Amino acid sequence: MGLYRERVFPWLLDHVVRGEEIEAIRDRVIEHAIGHVIEIGSGTGANFLCYSDSIASLTTVDPNPGMNRMARRHSKYLGFPVDMRELDCEHLPMKEASFDCAVTTLTLCSLADVKKCLREVYRVLKPGGRLLFLEHGLSNSETVSRWQQRITPLQRRVCDGCHLNREIDTLILNAGFTVEEMKNYYLQKVPRAFGYMYEGSATK
Asked: For a FRET experiment, which of 83, 121, 125, 145 has its CA 20 to 30 Å from that of 89?
């Protein structure tokens, strides 16, 4: 896996993904999680405190041992059961229709096979189950999107596979989901090429 990916990048990510603006948005998205929840690309556990204690359980999926070590420290005092799985999401071991809700935040940008992962998420959700998402991706501005295309090869190397140029809504729709609601906007304190957001929910 490499020293940078396992030791350095988790620490770097834990600092980058925090801040008042993004924390408020996380709360807004994740407050809708109910029942048995699966979080894909849980990283260092930045979302954990956003979940209501009323959820039945949280299962997390992340292949990076360094991320999971940090996440375990953040999970100690949660008021619901947490099952942390150190694995890729392309081959989830869970049975079909196991979860009421799935969550992805700043995750779909970096998955090696994002299409296969979303199909797996669709499979393990119950009929009518919801996918809550908060992702950054390709801007609808021609100027910004051109910069995103240029920067993405370097971004992938520095940020563990992160793409700036993925059309998040198209990926979700192509996996079979119905997008219930979605809004796009730029984060206020982030350069536009890095901060074009897709926030919303989709159903199976």
From this structure: 145
